[in-house]
Write a structure and sequence with these properties.
By secondary structure, the chain is of the alpha/beta class. The protein has 2 domains: about 375 residues, Arginase, Chain A; about 35 residues, no CATH class. The protein is about 30% helix and about 10% strand. Helix 1 crosses helix 10. Pfam families: Hist_deacetyl.
């Protein structure tokens, strides 16, 4: 196999088809703060929203404020003890939880801040409700930029992430879809999502990330899953300075092959903005259009897709890129001139939409990438072609029950019909 990086043509970022887009945004999310010196700024989601609104994209899509995720919903993946801790700990009572703070890895990278639990529930609610709308065929694309927190583990915070909204969204999708593909273009390895589905063939995870002396230190080529999940975890370890043309020449063949081989019926795309050029914590050299090309390519398959945020620590670049990608998802290419918005001064001195690459040296040699691609394709060839799954009858969602008289003896759940109906479902031992 010969690796070839073709020149990157920004015009290859196309718009295709006509999609119904559901966009989830909660105005409270930009008010939370990890601390003044912390690189993670939820404020960038508010900046993104301001650009989206001022570009007039609200006319193209349906905008929702998701119901915050409940404890019960969070505990579909996370441990009860961990979620209980998140709901009770505050900066004022932190001293009472010293043992738990160590156990659940809360401290430096993942500080306790005011409204931590509310922040988690907003992030989780958006991804779960986006997945639920996709399941019911109410939209073709669901967007939740407050989500994408891919490092959180079952009972542990990690890498600025406390609640793994992606895993919760995928669990929701698995109620209707036999196979779900997770794609991660954050500069960091999507370790929390990979770990959650490491032993199942119902979710294939594919992460493109910097590998080698870089957080979280996982995601090498040989990490491919275990047991039933063997070869259903795909890792693409990259080096510093990767540019648009090189990234495209790796991303498209890998995703193209996975789509052909795995045939997912739903996709979750994590759009971490720290793979952009000039990021405070990242070390890649992607322009806005190079990053957006990934979104455009995934969209071209026409499969129900949940798009979530993720990392990104140079706020103006993240906001520009996510706004541009929202345009693409709505089949609109946004104007280069930024419209006046609430945070206009952040985008000086040029006030342009673009995020340009720098002259950073690309350490990814053709020989290295050829070796990576050969390894990935060899692993994919040994997977079972589009594994089949025995699907159970899915209980009705509450919205689909029509004007059925409510039985007061039956506890209702918004996403799963009646609790009684859900209790009748037989769960296989190897479901996850």
């Amino acid at each position: 196999m010969v690796y070839e990086a073709k020149p990157f043509d920004p015009l290859t970022v196309k718009t295709t088809g006509k999609d119904r887009v559901a966009y989830f945004y909660d105005a409270d999310v930009g008010s939370f703060s990890y601390g003044s010196s912390h690189p993670m700024k939820p404020h960038r989601i508010r900046m993104t929203h301001s650009l989206i609104m001022n570009y007039g994209l609200y006319k193209k899509m349906e905008i929702y404020r998701a119901k915050p995720a409940t404890k019960q919903e969070m505990c579909q993946f996370h441990s009860d003890e961990y979620i209980d801790f998140l709901s009770r700990v505050t900066p004022d009572n932190l001293e009472m939880f010293q043992k738990e703070s160590v156990k659940f890895n809360v401290g430096d990278d993942c500080p306790v801040f005011d409204g931590l639990y509310e922040y988690c529930s907003i992030s989780g609610g958006g991804s779960m409700e986006g997945a639920a709308r996709l399941n019911r065929g109410k939209c073709d694309v669901a967007i939740n930029y407050a989500g994408g927190l891919h490092h959180a583990k079952k009972a542990e915070a990690s890498g600025f992430c406390y609640l793994n909204d992606i895993v919760l969204g995928i669990i929701e999708l698995l109620r209707y879809h036999p196979r779900v593909l997770y794609i991660d273009i954050d500069v960091h390895h999507g370790d929390g999502v990979e770990e959650a589905f490491y032993t199942t063939d119902r979710v294939m995870t594919c992460s493109f990330h910097k590998y080698g002396e870089f957080f979280p230190g996982t995601g090498e080529l040989r990490d491919t899953g275990v047991a039933k999940g063997k070869n259903y975890s795909v890792n693409v370890p990259l080096r510093d300075g990767i540019d648009d043309a090189t990234y495209k020449s790796v991303f498209e063949p890998v995703i193209g092959k996975i789509m052909e081989w795995y045939q997912p019926s739903a996709i979750v795309l994590q759009c971490g903005g720290d793979s952009l050029s000039g990021d405070r914590l990242g070390c890649f050299n992607l322009s806005m259009r190079g990053h957006a090309n990934c979104v455009s390519y995934v969209k071209s398959f026409g499969i129900p897709t949940l798009v979530v945020g993720g990392g990104g620590y140079t706020m103006r670049n993240v906001a520009r890129t996510w706004a541009f990608e929202t345009g693409l998802l709505n089949n609109v290419i946004l104007d280069e001139e930024l419209p006046y918005n609430d945070y206009y001064e952040y985008y000086g001195p040029d006030y342009q939409l673009d995020v340009r690459p720098s002259n950073m040296f690309n350490v990814n040699t053709p020989e290295y990438l050829d070796k990576v691609l050969t390894g990935i394709f060899t692993n994919l060839e040994s997977t079972k072609f589009a594994p089949s799954v025995q699907m159970n009858n899915v209980p009705h969602d509450q919205e689909d029950l029509g004007d059925v008289e409510e039985d007061t003896d039956v506890a209702k759940d918004t996403r799963g019909g009646s609790q009684y109906a859900r209790d009748q479902m037989i769960e296989r031992d190897d479901e996850f």
